[in-house]
């Protein structure tokens, strides 16, 4: 994911003679998906050209997953210092240097950056060209002084923050995820417009680092998640001092740097020192001149089939640009899928029923497959839902992390979805992604041996709940056991 092709002004004009290049695979965008394709294809013998006009590593490394998790980690350290009493540790109020926390963020980026660097990929045999690009016909892309014709083209241009046209927004300073991590001055009162994962992750990180935080959400915070699971997270965030105002649609923005006012449709006014826009993302496809290549797209991204082919059969689109799930791991999955098709000519289609996602608040929130509401709509009375609470897990008790629960949706012995709210939910959900990916039955998890004491036992205990009515509450089973006990020698 990256910020490729965000403005025509960024397309470099050149007076140099045009160099024409022919290649097997041309990749537009060096984010997660593009790098996955470039690495795999070049190491298996294909001739690969990779175009990137902005930063190698794309959004995830530079503006998204990596810096946000680094800032969250800083917030966790601060929070732990002031919440040790229940463990016999005297709480202290941490002295937070917001600028130093941002130094930590950039150190993390710098540590990971060599893995995504131009030098590394050139070492693999990839030709890396640092230019923005656009199609000039169905099989040719122009990038600065280069015209590249390829047997296959991959659009992996990622996405950028969506900034809605709220009246007055252009008159005040505001942050997005592309600018927030360069901010050195700690916000006294951060107002966040958007109550999704990005907004709430940054809300908790900032309140733990000492800022006052207000989140404005036009509908329901964490609205796409299971409401019961989302409530676990929202209750904790509110308990930590974050104001979460739902049903608040921003109608007008006024003020100046350090004194910003958000006026909402119901007449409410929210004032703060800084503003973060976190209302969603939009794909970076509008500056590619896709029409010249016969490629259809809309505001959600490039239109593809399940093989990720566009309406131009020689061009693929992956990751955020493909208008599907906007996650780094999905872009990588897309990349691995199309390599099978491009390099070997084999059929390869994506699935979406086994894709997990997580919100990295504390506690975390994770989902794979269908939520309970979706499963009930799809399967009606065939559905069984099993549950297990964190507060009955010994490791969670020992670490004081007893908030949360797991729910698993099961149809005829086969899981179709899992929802987890609680500590390390993003790690625990991987078991259920494995189950759904391989169409395993619930017995596979019930038979798993988890080391004691671990949070992973939550998955096993949830699976075990499926058998409780079948074994322990079943009169027939009890009669059989009594009979066998009588006849055994």
UniProtKB/TrEMBL annotation:
Q: Which UniProt keywords apply?
A: Disulfide bond, FAD, Flavoprotein, NAD, NADP, Nucleotide-binding, Oxidoreductase, Redox-active center
Enzyme Commission number(s) of this protein: 1.16.1.1
Please give one Pfam family short name.
Pyr_redox_dim
The chain positions of domain Pyridine nucleotide-disulphide oxidoreductase dimerisation read: 355-462
Cite the binding residues for NAD(+). 194-201, 217, 280
Which pairs of Cys residues are joined through disulfide bonds in the record?
60-65
Residues reported to bind FAD = 69, 157-159, 320
Q: Which cofactor does it need?
A: FAD
Q: Where is the FAD/NAD(P)-binding domain?
A: 24-335
Query: Tell me, what is one Gene Ontology molecular-function annotation carried by this entry?
Result: NAD(P)H dehydrogenase (quinone) activity
According to the lineage, what is the superkingdom? Bacteria
Q: What class of enzyme is it?
A: oxidoreductase
Q: Does the keyword Oxidoreductase belong to this entry?
A: yes
Q: What is this protein called?
A: Mercuric reductase
> What is the gene name?
merA
């Amino acid at each position: 994911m990256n910020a490729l092709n965000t403005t025509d002004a960024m397309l470099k004009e050149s007076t140099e003679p045009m160099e024409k290049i022919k290649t097997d695979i041309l990749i537009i965008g060096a984010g997660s998906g593009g790098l996955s394709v470039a690495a795999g294809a070049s190491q298996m013998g294909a001739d690969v050209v990779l175009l990137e006009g902005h930063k190698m590593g794309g959004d995830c490394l530079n503006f998204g997953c990596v810096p946000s998790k680094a800032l969250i980690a800083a917030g966790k350290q601060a929070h732990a210092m002031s919440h040790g009493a229940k463990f016999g540790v005297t709480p202290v109020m941490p002295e937070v240097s917001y600028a130093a926390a941002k130094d930590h963020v950039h150190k993390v980026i710098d540590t990971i950056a060599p893995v995504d660097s131009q030098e590394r990929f050139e070492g693999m045999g990839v030709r890396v060209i640092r230019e923005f690009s656009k199609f000039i016909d169905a099989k040719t892309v122009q990038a600065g002084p280069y015209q590249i014709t390829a047997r296959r083209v991959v659009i992996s241009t990622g996405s950028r923050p969506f900034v809605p046209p709220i009246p007055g927004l252009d008159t005040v300073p505001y942050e997005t995820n592309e600018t927030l991590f360069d901010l050195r001055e700690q916000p006294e009162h951060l107002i966040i417009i958007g109550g999704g994962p990005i907004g709430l992750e940054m809300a908790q990180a900032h309140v733990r680092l000492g800022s006052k935080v207000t989140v404005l959400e036009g509908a329901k915070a964490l609205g796409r998640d299971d409401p019961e699971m989302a409530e676990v997270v929202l209750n904790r965030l509110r308990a930590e001092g974050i104001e979460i105002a739902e049903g608040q649609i921003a109608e007008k923005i006024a003020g100046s740097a350090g004194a910003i006012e958000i006026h909402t449709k119901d007449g409410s006014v929210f004032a703060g020192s800084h503003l973060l826009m976190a209302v969603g993302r939009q794909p970076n496809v509008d500056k590619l001149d896709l029409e010249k290549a016969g490629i259809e797209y809309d505001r959600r991204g490039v239109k593809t089939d399940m093989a990720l082919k566009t309406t131009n059969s020689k061009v693929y689109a992956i990751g955020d640009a493909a208008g599907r799930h906007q996650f780094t791991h999905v872009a990588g999955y897309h990349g691995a899928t199309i390599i099978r098709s491009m390099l070997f000519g084999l059929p390869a289609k994506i699935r979406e029923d086994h894709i997990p996602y997580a919100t990295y608040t504390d506690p975390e929130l994770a989902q794979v497959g269908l939520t309970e509401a979706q499963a009930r709509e799809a399967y009606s009375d065939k559905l069984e839902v099993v549950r297990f609470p964190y507060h009955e897990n010994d490791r969670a008790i020992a670490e004081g992390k007893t908030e949360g629960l797991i729910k698993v949706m099961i149809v005829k012995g086969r899981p179709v979805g899992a929802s987890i709210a609680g500590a390390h939910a993003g790690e625990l959900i991987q078991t259920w992604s494995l189950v759904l990916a391989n169409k395993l039955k619930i017995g596979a998890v019930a038979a798993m041996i988890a080391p004691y004491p671990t949070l992973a036992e939550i998955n096993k205990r949830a699976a075990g709940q499926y058998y409780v009515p079948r074994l322990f509450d079943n009169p027939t089973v009890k009669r059989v056991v009594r009979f066998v006990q009588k006849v055994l020698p």
